[in-house]
Design a protein that fits this description.
By secondary structure, the chain is an alpha+beta fold. About 25% of the residues lie in helices and about 20% in strands. The protein is built from two helices and three strands. It has helices at about 5-10, 55-65; strands at about 15-20, 25-30, 35-40. The chain has a three-stranded antiparallel sheet. It is flat, with a radius of gyration of 14 Å.
């Protein structure tokens, strides 16, 4: 809801992807978090075992880097 966008961005959330036709936020990130990305689309539709969507690759990489060994 763009009515709250300024408040959310002031609190630290970044709207990094907007729909060019509607100007609605499609992607948000928290830069001070080890890995926080929220999307309003379905990256799994473009993902396969041999060619995973970059969001899934990034999530697995961050999970491995921040895992408790």
């Amino acid at each position: 809801n763009n009515d709250y966008l300024e408040q959310l961005e002031t609190a630290g959330m970044i709207a990094t992807g907007k729909n060019p036709k509607t100007n609605l936020v499609e992607v948000v990130e928290l830069p001070n978090h080890p890995w926080f990305i929220g999307v309003q689309y379905h990256p799994e539709y473009k993902s396969t075992v041999l060619n995973p969507h970059p969001l899934f690759v990034s999530f697995v990489k961050a999970s491995l880097e921040h895992s408790l060994n």
